[in-house]
Amino acid sequence: MDLFPSAKKIDWAQQAEQFGEYFSSGELLKNGIATLVIVLLLLILRSILVRAVRRSDKLPSDVRRRWLVQIRNGLLFLFLLGMTVVWSSQIQHVTISILAFAVAVVIATKELIQCISGSIMKAVGRPFKLGDRIEFHNIRGDVIDHNVLTTTIMEIGPDQMTQQLTGRAIVVPNNMFLNKVVINETFTQEYVLHCFKIPCSQKDDWRQTEQDLLDAAKIECEPYLAKARQHFDLLAKQQGLTVLSVDPRITFRIPKAGELELVVRVVAPARRKGRVEQAILRRMLDRQWERVKAAEAEKLAAEEAKALAAAEAAAAAALPAPSEPEQQPAPIEINAATEANVVSEPNGTPELSPTPTLPSMALPPDPNPGASGGATLGNTGVTASRNTRFE
């Protein structure tokens, strides 16, 4: 089967004669001088532009890097365009010859052609730009350079949830962008919505953890909320998107039975989301640590109070028993009859009046005074028995 019938029609002798005539003429020298002039002009222009960009201190580092890459790619395009204009007549002479071995070139340079196709796809579709943080095919990092064949990525790791640079650069051929899904984490440009997960157990006090996370997120994101809200409103108008909420939010996931994950979503600057996440976690852990220390201090105080009470009880038990109090004499009851005999002294001290003297009475003598149990009353000479009653 004749796959290339046009290749048989090529007169190689005629082509060699034309090449000889071309090299013997002065046209080659003219084209060579024009090529040299174009190269020198492009080098001078590149030097001036690169120096101007690097001396601009007002531009951020990622913007300067973006300008440097664009200058390089633009000058490369100008060089290819100039070479096409200068050597256009000579390219026409070799076009037929190129068709002869086009299939061999395609087979040999299939990967290069795919890389160029991937570069064209990036230029047309613009899935990302220089400085964006992307993720595809288990590769995650910041785009720091790209050209016709490759894209250079500064790796972020070590896993998918961290936000720190590993110091390694990954050079990716552009043909991988033809059939791989690309995730652009900085699609919203200056401010982004950042999510991270906190593992927890359903037996823990997850309500308190939720409140601690929410309070910490509000404190750390407060300086960015106003500007972020304006940024997302403008982005929604420009690209026809739904207006995104920038307030901190916490949702729950149950990956397994008994397990719980708190998914925290906050707004942060695109280049500071890792720092914001760490600040929120640190503030939440500080609150929990203070709560644990307060509980330990309260428990220690309770134990000390209990030990002190036990010591006081033991000391009280070791003391001797107190002696019984002496019985006091019964109080004297003063009735109305005796109250009349009380005479008040000038100094207020009451004094009983003297006992009235009974009149002298003569009683008949008792033949047996000892048997009757009588008694003689003082100096009166009155003898009364036990049964004697005085009214």
Automatic annotation (TrEMBL):
Its main location: membrane. GO terms for molecular function: mechanosensitive monoatomic ion channel activity. The lineage of its organism: Bacteria, Pseudomonadati, Planctomycetota, Planctomycetia, Pirellulales. This is Mechanosensitive ion channel MscS domain-containing protein. The keyword Membrane applies. Residues 349-360 have a biased composition (Low complexity). It is found in: Membrane. The keyword Transcription regulation does not apply. GO terms for cellular component: membrane. The chain crosses the membrane at residues 32-50, 71-88.
